[in-house]
Amino acid sequence: MAAPMLLSLxxxxxxxxxxxxxxxxxxxxxxxAVLISLKRRPSFDLDKIPGPWTRAYPVVGNILECLxxxxxxxxxxxxxxxxxxxxIKFLWQDALIVTDPAALAGIMGRGDxxxxxxxxxxxPINRMCTPHGDANLLTSAADDTWKAIRKSVAVSFSMQNIRxxxxxxxxxxxQLIARLEALGPAAAIDVDQAALRVTLDIIGxxxxxxxxxxxxxDVPAYDHLIRVLPRCFTEVMLRIANPLREVFPGQHKNxxxxxxxxxxxxxxxxxxxxxxxxxxxxxxxxxxxxx
Length: 291
Hints:
Blueprint: H1 2-12, H2 18-39, H3 71-82, E1 85-90, E2 93-98, H4 101-107, H5 119-129, H6 144-154, H7 159-164, H8 166-183, H9 191-208, H10 225-241, H11 244-247, H12 255-290
Antiparallel strand pairs: 1-2
């Protein structure tokens, strides 16, 4: 026992610089943590839940089968094979995939069986919006602060306020209809893209007093919202499936391009937030002057 220990210490001495020694210690710590996690018995009755976890690889689990742009199809295949609730290995961690409607109603509702958002899963969405990955109203945990903000925002979605925006919605839809009619009956229409353009314009005008002008675009600019946002969400889904993509973007297909789109969207949201803050400040000053 002493000989291997002395050999390990002598090998460790080969790393002369402090940074190399720190790196070796960090890697060793991660490996030890992984080994402990692998040997730990699962809690509750996870072993009774079917799923591909029974043939998962050590350390990486089932993630290799999900490293594809349409990984949701793989999850669907497993759902068809194992049922509406099944277990996978996400790296060395256990994860449950739930597709059963009745179970989802309880999990995503507000009763005793409800569960809060998984911070780890929503983290890539946060980093799409801000460089620091700050949580927002859609991704934040349902704590008292979130409940107070949600209650104040919910007033904007009352039927009375929605009716006020109906002329805006109707106007943008009629604008789209006019553009489609101008293309003629022989034109092939991407209905999903057309609906997305209307939706983004209405959200911008009704929610932020900003016209993204998506409907009127023929070929949008490279950094236009209608082109950047779908790319950002694609990058988010790829990062959820493969956490290493964010750490080593250059080692993954279209990783640098995805990172560039994230940066463009972060800057857009920052500018939009600053613009709305100044508008709100101006309204407050105007109101105080009137009073």
